[in-house]
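4.2 Preliminary Data

To establish feasibility before requesting continued support, the project team ran the inverse folding procedure on a target of 258 residues. The structure was first converted into the token representation described in Section 3, and no sequence information of any kind was made available to the design step. The complete token record follows.
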């Protein structure tokens, strides 16, 4: 069989600096932030490309957002996805249920045209809002089996084998295709795009579709930053006078023996 994979990505604020929330508590303040793809979704893209390399077929990247989200789409094209779809919409107006419904509509439209997807991959959760819902909601909307929090994947015939960490060790799931899987960061290492890959991605066409329905919103009350972790500093001494205290501390930590 020719494996066709759809991998969904989201444009999110880049980490690396202080994160603030907007005054209304509804979003991350991006005034001083750049943008990237959610880390879980970077791993989902890598998993999709790896499966296509191993089995043949095609990986399509999909996002919901404005023209600015083309940056993340082209990042996925640069590392091996061969087709792209952008749902042209204001992502801030779409809650998890809206996103799942919009993606399901695209999948149904593709199926009606004779090109369905065997496997749909998503990040386990969004890096900005922490929503864990889209993958499960999408699977239910399409009537497909779903498993979440997966680190690595293999496809054999019409079956996908998914592995992820569980309370008692590695858990292994076998699902009949077509299926939906959410990928957790850490199971695979995303590759860096090559210069030829980036040049090819710039020229690649991106199909643009309009959402088939109006969003109802996420019903979010507000985002709240977790409290800062307390920190304490203890001065052990000055110069050579601090040596005994340093040795005592290293012994307490087990770095040196008594």
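Position-by-position output of the design step:
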């Amino acid at each position: 069989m020719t494996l066709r994979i759809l991998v969904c990505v989201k444009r999110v604020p880049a980490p690396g600096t202080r994160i603030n929330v907007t005054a209304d508590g509804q979003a991350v303040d991006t005034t001083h932030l750049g943008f990237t793809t959610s880390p879980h979704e970077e791993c989902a893209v890598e998993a999709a490309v790896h499966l296509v390399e191993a089995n043949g077929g095609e990986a399509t990247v999909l996002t919901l957002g404005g023209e600015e989200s083309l940056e993340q789409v082209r990042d996925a094209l640069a590392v091996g996805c061969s087709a792209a779809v952008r749902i042209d919409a204001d992502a801030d107006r779409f809650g998890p249920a809206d996103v799942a419904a919009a993606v399901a509509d695209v999948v149904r439209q593709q199926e009606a045209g004779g090109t369905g997807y065997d496997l749909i991959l998503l990040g386990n959760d969004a890096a900005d809002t922490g929503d864990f819902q889209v993958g499960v909601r999408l699977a239910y909307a399409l009537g497909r089996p779903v498993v979440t929090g997966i680190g690595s994947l293999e496809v054999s015939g019409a079956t996908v084998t998914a592995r992820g960490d569980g309370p008692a060790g590695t858990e292994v799931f076998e699902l009949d295709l077509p299926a939906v899987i959410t990928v957790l960061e850490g199971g695979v290492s995303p590759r860096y795009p090559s210069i030829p890959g980036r040049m090819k991605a710039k020229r690649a066409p991106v199909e643009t579709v309009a959402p088939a329905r109006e969003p109802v919103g996420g019903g979010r009350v507000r985002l709240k930053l977790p409290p800062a972790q307390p920190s304490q500093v203890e001065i052990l001494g000055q110069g050579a006078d601090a040596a005994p205290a340093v040795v005592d501390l290293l012994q307490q930590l087990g770095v040196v023996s008594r």
